[in-house]
Amino acid sequence: MGWNPDTSNMTMSGAPHPELDPDPPIDLNLLRVLRSVHRWRNVSRAGEELGMTQSAVSNALRRLRQRLGDELFIRSPQGMLPTARVEVLIGAVAAGLEQIEGALRPPPAFDPATSSRSMRLLGNDLAQMVFLPSLLARFNTLAPSMRLETVDAPVGEARRLLQDGRVDLALGNWPPLGEDFHRQRLFSETLVVLMSRQHPLWGRELTREDYLREAHVDYRPSGATYSHLQSLLDRTLDQEGLRREVRVIAGHALGLAAIIGSSRLLLTLPQRLAEALTAGRDALGIAALPFPSPAFTISQQWHGRAHRDPALVWLRRQVVELFGED
């Protein structure tokens, strides 16, 4: 019979069993002792720095000698002289400990007046017209060096962006994004009709017959917020047995005001967005929807990982102060 090596401490893959690993992870406190003794060349001074007794420092060095198989320090009239092995190790050890200790330090207090942080908001380009002007005005006053960036995305991608920390806050009529997310109501919205003031129907009450007889623009960006509103409108019309004639489908908000202002087309959209589009544009007017408008909630949502971030807590508070109804 040939020689059969003992495999009792091996896993099925041939790797050492983790419980019998001959080189378990090293205690980081031992490395802190190594760094301090190397710095001071003295066990007593190292103990004072670390808040340890001299015997505790000596015991830590003994454990580290056994772990590394090296004398580490040699006593001399000049103090504890490091061995060649320590001189090779100490740079990486000190840098690693500094990085770990830095990561564990409490973060500095957030000060919007001095922060240069960039905040990323999830919302379509029409939503920018509602939220960004007021937010930017407040940032200019309270946080002049901070930046705002907007992103639009479908629901699935939006969820991942927030989970990964690549986006900080979702604003708009987003559906609930999941159990790991926080959702705060801002205000309720209804739909209105945007039209040209040169339209034959402008200036009188819009009827269902008027609404259905005219051609419409549908704004359908790539993200989810506004398409969710369109589905609410379509369901409302279906319940009434009504159907619009959609003549134009727009994927971007750019040019919508010009299209409506120079044509007989109607655009159905949330009231605050309509007010933002008509601001400073005498050619556009807003009419009431000629049937009960579906009410919907505009909210802000964020992932649990961002819940206690001081900068993002500050951002959400600004949003509530500017747009919250309650």
Can you give a write-up of this model?
- The protein has helices at residues 28-40, 43-50, 54-68, 84-104, 125-142, 155-163, 208-213, 225-239, 256-261, 271-278, 310-323; strands spanning 73-76, 79-82, 118-122, 147-151, 169-172, 181-189, 191-196, 215-219, 245-250, 266-270, 284-288, 296-303.
- It is 41% helix and 20% strand.
- The radius of gyration is 33 Å and the shape is rod-shaped.
- Helix 1 crosses helix 2 (43-50) and helix 2 (43-50) packs across helix 3.
- With 326 residues, it is an alpha/beta fold.
Salient structural properties:
326 residues, alpha/beta, Arc Repressor Mutant, subunit A, D-Maltodextrin-Binding Protein, domain 2, 3 domains, 5-stranded mixed beta sheet, 12 strands, disordered N terminus
Order of secondary-structure elements: HHHEEHEHEHEEEHEHEHEHEEH
Radius of gyration (CA) equals 33 Å
The number of distinct helices, counting runs of at least 4 residues, comes to 11
**Class by alpha and beta content:** alpha/beta
Helix content: 40-55%
Number of extended strands: 12
What is the CATH first-level class name of the largest domain?
Answer: Alpha Beta
Distance between the termini: 85 Å
**CATH architectural designation of the largest domain:** 3-Layer(aba) Sandwich
CATH homologous superfamily classification of the largest domain: Periplasmic binding protein-like II
Residue share in β-strands: 15-25%
CATH topology of the largest domain: D-Maltodextrin-Binding Protein, domain 2
Poorly predicted runs are 1-21
Structurally, how many domains make up the residues? 3
Largest sheet: 5 strands, mixed
Physical arrangement of strands within the biggest beta sheet: 4-3-5-12-6
Shape: rod-shaped
What is the arithmetic mean of pLDDT? 86
